[in-house]
Every structure is written in C-alpha cells, then in structure tokens.
C-alpha cells in the first residue's frame, strides 16, 4: 500500500468496525455483508468496501466478509495484535477509573502503574501508585508504550513534555488542552467537556 | 436561520472554539482574528468564518472578533447559558469519576445523584447514591435534564430504555454500545476503547 495517506474519517471508523465484528462473533455470526456492516455504522455499503480497499480489501465480490478473518485483519491494522504497557499520570478520579477499566486489559492494554505528585494509596486494585519523582527511573527501567495523561489541565503540558523527553511515543490525553508534541509521538485526546457541550447543543436543537 | 441543517463537522468544532475563547479570555486577550482561531483549530480562516456564518456571523470584516462577545454567543449556541441537572447511572469507577469532575459544575452541569443496583456508599463526595429501584420516583419528582450512562455494556441498552420511558431527553453514554432511542432524544457517546484503538493505529503508522 506504500505511503498512501488514510483519511481521518476512515481511521475513526476502523475501531467501530472492530467493535461490530466482535459483537457479531459473540453472536456466532460467521459471515457479514458490506450492506449489514454499512447499516451498523450508518454509512453506505460502497463506503464500507472503499474503506477496506485502503488495506487491500478483504472480501470476495458478492460473497461478503468472513467475520473472524475480517476481525483478525482489523486487529492487525489497529495494532491490537500485541500487548501494550500503559502508565497513567494522575491518580485522581479519572486515573483511578481508567486503572480499573476491565475492557482495556481484555484487548492487551495493560495498566502497569499510576503516578501522582501525592501518593494517597500505594495500590489501586492491583496497580501500584508511585510518586512523580519515580517516573524517570520507572520508564528507563521498564519502558512504556502508552502514557495516559489524567492530570489537571494546568500541568498536562509539562507532564507531556516530561514523558516525551523520557522517550514515550504515545500519549492518551484526558486533560482539556491541546498537547504540542514532536511529529513522531502519537496523541489521542478524549475531550469530555467537548462531548458534553455537543450534547447540550443537540438538546437545544431537537 | 430557519431550519438550516448544520453539519456534524461544524457542530464538533463549536466546543473547541469555545474552549479556545475561554483560554484567550483567561489570558486577557480581548480581540481575535479568524486567522488566529484557525491556527488554534487547524482549519483555514475561511472555514472559521463559514462556521460562524451558520449562526449569523459575529465579527466585522477586517476587524476580527471580540473575544467576550464571541464566547457569549457560542455559549448560547451550545446551550451553555443555563444549568443542567445530571444524574449518573452506574456508581462504578467511571460514574464516580464523573461525579467528582469539577469542570462540569463550572459550566452549569450539576451532578445531582448517582444510581446503581448496589449502593456501597450512600455518598460520593457531595453526591447521593440511590438504588436503581428509586430511579423512577426520583425522575418523576425532580426531573432530569441529562442522564449519564456509566454502566457495564450488557445493561446499557435497558437502562437507556428505562430513562427514555421516564421522559429523559438527553443521554451521555460511556458504555461501548450504540443506543437506540427515539428521534427526540439527544445522545452523545464517549467511546473510550475506540479512541484507544485509534491511538494504537497511529502508533503503528508513525
């Protein structure tokens, strides 16, 4: 596929396809048409086929897709075919909630440690909590695939800078602020307030 | 503006404009150009002006926008100019984290109660926790503007159905499942796993 740039719209649909295929697999469904997937996503069957063409296409014309095969290919494309060590910066409500979120571990995203400026509990469930002063040594000794930023807004930027300086290449950001990172660092933002404001917009316009 | 349909892309940019204007206001900046806003959002200045034209346009050509005025107009458009009573269904990690999230209260989104099948603590901070058997009476007596669904995936649909039947018109859904609701009910989904899978995709493709 060379250096083809996949659009953001397609990228954002990929996890949704994956989720629907998980559901179909759990229901014991072995084959699915582009039309059915299209209905689940709210796009056209043609869009579904175009999306998969970006990655070589996975079905046989007129036959549809093998659910297990398509799910496996999507897992590869999404990078879900390997485990990831995650650390969470910020042991407040959000950080602790994420540390306990069972769905992540099921897909290979293992929360290994929480860090905070103040260590109130040494453990959240099975996950150890360390002071921020231990962060550098921890990352140097153990590595870190993904760092979750679950701090207050006002320190998120500095924390991101520290993580990047320690060689962390992937940030999942829950703080309501845009992070400036080098181009080789991947960032995803969960903008909770923005989602809530879209909801209040929709309420006003129903 | 009549019945003009505003695109999803525009709707999703509105809270980001609002956040940037809050930031500018905090920094003491009183005027901003479409070019500056464009840079903050990663779109063109022309897109910014087009976005605001959907709502009547707010600036003077060549002059830019008054920050306080634009923020106020966006607050109106987003429905942030009134308080909302929120209840949270699910007093697990996510529900408790949301109950304690201070940013919401600052914008008028007041968490009034948590509900769960099992009440382990009668209070989370200042927020009372009630059994699900109390939900119907609570909503009938107090009303509810927004219900947050922070339950396990397998009960989210039923919970949504109960809330809709009780007259709740707005659902903020944290469960990884699509909710089927009548057309007069607003829904926003926070799909955490999907965001994480987009991150693993980006890591793989850097």
Q: How do the SSEs of chain A run, as a string of H and E?
A: HEHHEHEHHEEEHEHEEH
Q: Helix share of residues of chain A?
A: 40-55%
Please report the number of helical segments of chain A: 9
Top CATH class of the largest domain in chain A: Alpha Beta
> What overall geometry of chain A do the principal axes of the alpha carbons give?
globular
- CATH topology type of the largest domain in chain A: Rossmann fold
Commentary on this structure:
Chain A folds into two domains: about 10-80, Arc Repressor Mutant, subunit A; about 85-195, NAD(P)-binding Rossmann-like Domain (Rossmann fold, 3-Layer(aba) Sandwich), CATH 3.40.50. The first copy, chain A, is about 45% helix and about 20% strand. The first copy, chain A, is built from nine helices and nine strands. Chain A has helices at about 10-25, 35-40, 45-55, 65-80, 95-100, 100-105, 135-140, 155-165, 190-205, and strands at about 30, 65, 85-90, 110-115, 125, 125-130, 145-150, 170-175, 185-190. Chain A has a seven-stranded mixed beta sheet with strand order 5-6-4-3-7-8-9, sandwiched between helices. In chain A, strand 5 and strand 6 (about 125-130) form a beta hairpin. The first copy, chain A, starts with 7 loop residues before the first helix and ends with a helix. At the A-B interface, helix 1, helix 5, strand 9 and helix 9 of A face helix 1, helix 5, strand 9 and helix 9 of B.
